[in-house]
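Consider the following assembly input.
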Amino acid sequence: MVRVPLTISERERGERLGRALRTARAGRSIVDVATQAGISPETLRKIERGRIPTPAFFTVVAVADVLGLSLDDLLAGLGADDAAEMATLGR
Amino acid sequence: MVRVPLTISERERGERLGRALRTARAGRSIVDVATQAGISPETLRKIERGRIPTPAFFTVVAVADVLGLSLDDLLAGLGADDAAEMATLGR
DNA sequence: CATGACAGTGATACTAATACCGGTGCGCGA
DNA sequence: TCGCGCACCGGTATTAGTATCACTGTCATG
């Protein structure tokens, strides 16, 4: 086995992350935020919609920064944020 | 153009992240920390050595959590952590 | 109604992340 | 010296992330 497909739990976690980001974006447009963060609008849209469940670390950092979000706060709002559970979830 | 290769700056940023994680790991073994974080030791080793410059968000979160690191603190120790620069760097 | 900005979708293309395997080298205790 | 554990590397295999493009739908405004 080499590079196991993402589990359902992992995808759901991605959706929660996406929702949190979208909520924080509030009124601003996707294009606006994505451009400021240095990523393409499509990518941000996919992250927000949960279609990219495990985005790159620095991508999330850039978006959170543009939105004025603290990463720690962002994570706290996701629930289920203790160590192994973050990476293992329903494996 | 479709999925541009990582720039040198991005790779260097990855190396800084890796060094920070390795420093925080202190005496513990890679195997120990990786197992607790729910990832393979190889992956953690590659991240620490900078051979995975942009690891997945939740992977970093899991490792930081095991090490008792705050993500915000971790980032602060990386330097060059403002918005667009995080994702754009030398693009 | 026409136009334009934004959101959403699906396809395509290419690189990156991750896991597993086999092998190497080092230090330490039996 | 012989294991043994740990770190490291290179290769292989597979999925995921990201960008670009080409649509469609909606809604406000001219």
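Residues 83 and 89 of chain A are 10 Å apart (CA to CA). Ask yourself how this observation constrains the way the partners meet.
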